[in-house]
Specification:
about 260 residues, single chain, disordered N terminus, mainly alpha
């Protein structure tokens, strides 16, 4: 009997470890001081916390959007948002028969690289140390820093979760007058695409474990030793999962009947 109780408790804690909740997402946003976040991004944060409680699909969306949005806010100077817009455009155009699966496959690869960069950005924030890191390169290879995409059409295609509030906040970010807000909007909109949701659904367990690691309280001088090692290990595992998931999603493109 005691063994059964022990096993039940073990399964419970394992399930809890893989489960994302609004508290974990709020703690992840807490890696950035509120004073460093533009008002529209704060509105998005609040809407994502609400969306995370609206069902499993909403939880998956909020998890992915939080990862990329907080990453975009981790630097004062905005990075290129090309990977976000390329995924949005390729996903829509494939559905309309205007592009090949190979184009969307390439966009998924770009998005996976951006997710991996987001993991590194959050790792640095999670160490709570002043670490020398290069600022994003001002790359404008895709025009307007990746903020050219059909906003309304992209959100019109979302059917897996209630998106009205997240859509409203993303629209405000899309039309904002500063590039940093535009990037957060592009991150939130691309996170609602089918490929992005599929990737996050696959990596959910590793991503939740990682966010628990980066948001855990710092004990003493842990920042310079064991914490750094722990976060690097978790980051490496998550990045590996991201690229494996991206390959799986790409493979599904070619095995689908449409």
């Amino acid at each position: 009997m005691a063994i059964l109780v022990l096993l039940s408790a073990l399964f419970f804690f394992q399930a809890a470890a893989a489960h994302c909740n609004a508290g974990l997402l709020e703690a992840t946003w807490g890696l950035i001081e509120d004073g460093e976040i533009e008002p529209f991004s704060l509105v998005l944060r609040n809407n994502l916390l609400e969306t995370a409680s609206s069902g499993k699909s909403g939880e998956i969306y909020a998890l992915g959007a939080t990862l990329t949005a907080v990453s975009e806010l981790s630097w004062v100077r905005p990075d290129s948002a090309c990977a976000y817009s390329n995924l949005i455009n390729a996903n829509l155009n494939l559905g309309k028969g205007r592009l090949s699966r190979a184009t969307l496959s390439s966009a998924i690869d770009e998005y996976a690289i951006t997710l991996a960069k987001a993991v590194e950005n959050l790792r640095i924030l999670g160490q709570s140390c002043v670490l020398p890191s290069p600022w994003p390169v001002l790359d404008n290879c895709c025009g307007d820093y990746g903020r050219i995409y059909p906003f309304e059409a992209s959100w019109d295609s979302v059917s897996s979760f209630s998106s009205s509030k997240a859509r409203c906040a993303s629209r405000d970010l899309y039309t904002a007058l500063n590039a940093r807000s535009n990037n957060v909007g592009a991150a939130a909109t691309s996170a609602a695409t089918t490929p992005a949701l599929s990737i996050v659904k696959i990596i959910e367990g590793d991503l939740v474990s990682y966010l628990q690691g980066v948001t855990s309280p710092i004990v003493g001088c842990e920042c310079t030793g064991s914490r750094s090692k722990k976060l690097r290990t978790l980051a490496g595992k998550l990045k590996s999962s991201i690229f494996t998931a991206a390959n799986q999603v790409k493979s599904n493109l070619y095995s689908s009947c449409h």
